[in-house]
């Protein structure tokens, strides 16, 4: 490890170039869980999120080696699925759906996850960021809480997925930090 992580930004048009990198990082990060059918569907999620015109991805590199990534895409106006958990909904419900944050084991607990997370959100114009996190990983839930997210409910988006915690973060004023 060099200690310096270079963050590179990618968008929808770059998916074919970065797709295998995302899959490789995932395979390393989930090496002990690759027998799980839900985990095996990760390529579908990459293609699904990457098909959004507003797809945004940040990949961290240690030299030429990818160490992790974060990606997501803006939600379509009027289709903010998290609204059912917030009453009353905010006046500006523009939302960035933060889909994935993954760091390879060798670089965990080095601050890379926060670097990737903050870089992905740094230039967002949406008022909110929303994500799903497995409550079976309380340290991860706490980490997102430390980054400004609040838990607003639960959601199981697929029959074979966990019943995730829905977490929302206000992004207004983020650029003034």
TrEMBL record:
Documented EC number(s): 2.3.1.-
InterPro entries, alphabetized: Acyl_CoA_acyltransferase (IPR016181), GNAT_dom (IPR000182)
Span of domain N-acetyltransferase: 5-172
Annotated SUPFAM superfamilies: Acyl-CoA N-acyltransferases (Nat)
Swiss-Prot/TrEMBL keywords: Acyltransferase, Transferase
Molecular function GO terms recorded: acyltransferase activity
The keyword Ligase is annotated on this UniProt entry: no
Gene3D superfamilies recorded: 3.40.630.30
Pfam families (UniProt xref): Acetyltransf_1 (PF00583)
Protein name (database record): GNAT family N-acetyltransferase
């Amino acid at each position: 490890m060099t200690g310096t992580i270079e963050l590179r930004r990618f968008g929808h048009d770059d998916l074919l170039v970065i797709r295998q990198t995302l899959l490789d990082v995932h395979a390393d990060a989930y090496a002990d869980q690759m027998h799980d059918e839900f985990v095996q569907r990760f390529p579908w999620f990459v293609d699904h999120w990457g098909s959004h015109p507003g797809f945004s991805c940040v990949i961290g590199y240690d030299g030429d080696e990818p160490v992790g990534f974060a990606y997501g895409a803006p939600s379509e106006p009027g289709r903010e699925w998290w609204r059912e958990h917030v009453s009353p909904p905010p006046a500006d419900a523009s939302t960035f759906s933060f889909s994935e944050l993954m760091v390879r084991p060798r670089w965990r607990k080095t601050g890379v996850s926060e670097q990737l997370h903050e870089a992905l959100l740094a230039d967002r114009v949406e008022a909110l960021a929303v994500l799903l996190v497995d409550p079976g990983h309380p340290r991860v839930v706490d980490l997102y809480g430390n980054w400004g997210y609040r838990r607003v409910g639960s959601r199981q988006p697929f029959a074979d997925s966990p019943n995730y915690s829905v977490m929302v973060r206000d992004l207004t004023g983020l650029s003034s930090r």
